[in-house]
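From the methods appendix. Each design record in this collection lists the tokenized structure first, followed by the designed amino acid sequence. Records were kept in a plain field format so they could be parsed without special tools. The example shown here is representative of the layout used throughout.

RECORD:
FOLD TOKENS (410 positions):
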């Protein structure tokens, strides 16, 4: 679900005369479904249709009381809608990374730098041990498995193994956006305490999460104008986000500020490459990445796609090969061709969805082909796993070229 899908949900609330009438009625206070039916002269099915759209937009909330349902306007949802319009109709205020470095130079000279908190969403797939060791905070991205909602954290009530076994047995999984109130709560907490914070967030090309965070931050700054909260759109997912967080930890240990680290990451993120393959093409079909006919045909022929993260953070089909072994070899070939012959990589991350044996084989193949200080294997959690299914495997590394150059080269 991209940010554009989420934006449409908001604007649908205001694009129908009946829904505008309902909102006008709800301005006077909470109303039951029966009361709304009488006032707009609509049947139950018609009302249910309109109320679902209004609730999905987060402009209206529902409350159950016995067998009755009551509706009211959601204050935060209305505020979110107005801020969304403002954000979409304002010019970009992006600042070059070099300017950001210069802006914090004087603060460093004055000795005003202080440690900062690193916050990630749970799409980063960093191991819980690493999260704890370096004091990283997490904001959970919720997921649903067979209709049951889970607030996905690093201590969730379902293991990764149970999650993927459920999918293998025909279970259905999906994800939802982080509620803007979660960002508001987190931003407000840090702003009240005067803490400097760096947030690393799932690609805005894959999710509306980053946009929700921008809107929430704007609201918090109205109350705390001097708060120092930096947001970084990772233009990536899973271990790209994780690698950015690991780099942020290093820069923090070197004494950089939140702003300086954010500016450095803004430049660095464009050379982080993510390549991956999946075992079952039907998951890509369900996510809208592949037609059903291609998915079925590819599965019969044992076709394995190799995909990558594009410069804007979206997914792209890089190539298709026959068989798992060929897909892994192609990923290593792409990795090698992205590096200078004498390059020694510091870290390569291999996230996987419950296929550790293949991940270990890929790690051994990489170590035989390139110089690398460490190869870390980790499990993708349900946030990404819901969209790629069991048996997906990726390789994430820092290349000697940008993603734009990688696209042109290959």
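DESIGN:
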């Amino acid at each position: 679900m991209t940010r554009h899908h989420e934006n449409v949900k908001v604007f649908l609330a205001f694009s129908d005369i009946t829904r505008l009438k309902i909102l006008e009625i709800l301005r006077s206070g909470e109303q039951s479904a029966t009361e709304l039916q009488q006032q707009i002269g609509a049947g139950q099915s018609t009302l249910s249709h309109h109320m679902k759209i209004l609730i999905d937009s987060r402009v209206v909330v529902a409350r159950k009381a016995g067998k009755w349902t009551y509706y009211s306007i959601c204050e935060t949802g209305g505020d979110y809608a107005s801020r969304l319009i403002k954000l979409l109709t304002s010019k970009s205020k992006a600042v070059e990374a070099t300017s950001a470095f210069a802006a914090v130079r004087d603060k460093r000279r004055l000795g005003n730098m202080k440690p900062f908190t690193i916050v990630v969403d749970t799409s980063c797939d960093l191991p819980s041990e690493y999260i704890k060791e370096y004091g990283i905070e997490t904001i959970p991205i919720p997921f649903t498995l067979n209709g049951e909602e889970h607030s996905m954290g690093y201590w969730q009530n379902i293991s990764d193994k149970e999650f993927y076994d459920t999918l293998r047995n025909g279970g259905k999984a999906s994800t939802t956006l982080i509620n803007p109130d979660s960002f508001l709560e987190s931003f407000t907490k840090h702003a009240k305490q005067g803490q400097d914070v760096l947030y690393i967030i799932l690609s805005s090309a894959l999710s509306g999460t980053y946009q929700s965070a921008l809107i929430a931050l704007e609201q918090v700054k109205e109350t705390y104008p001097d708060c120092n909260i930096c947001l970084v759109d990772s233009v990536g997912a899973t271990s790209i986000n994780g690698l950015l967080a690991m780099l942020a930890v290093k820069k923090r240990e070197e004494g950089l500020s939140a702003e300086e680290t954010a500016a450095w990451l803004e430049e660095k993120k464009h050379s982080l490459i993510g390549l991956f393959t999946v075992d079952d093409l039907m998951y890509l079909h369900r996510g809208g990445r592949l037609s059903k006919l291609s998915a079925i045909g590819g599965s019969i022929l044992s076709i394995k796609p190799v995909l990558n993260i594009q410069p804007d953070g979206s997914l792209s089909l890089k190539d298709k090969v026959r068989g798992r072994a060929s897909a892994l070899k192609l990923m290593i070939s792409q990795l090698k061709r992205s590096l200078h012959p004498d390059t020694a990589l510091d870290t390569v991350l291999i996230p996987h969805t419950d296929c550790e044996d293949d991940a270990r084989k890929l790690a051994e193949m990489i170590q035989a082909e390139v110089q690398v200080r460490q190869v870390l294997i980790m499990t993708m959690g349900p946030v990404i796993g819901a969209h790629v299914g069991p048996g997906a495997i990726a390789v994430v590394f820092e290349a000697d070229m940008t993603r734009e150059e990688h696209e042109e080269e290959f």
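APPENDIX NOTE: The first strand starts at residue 31 and ends at 32.
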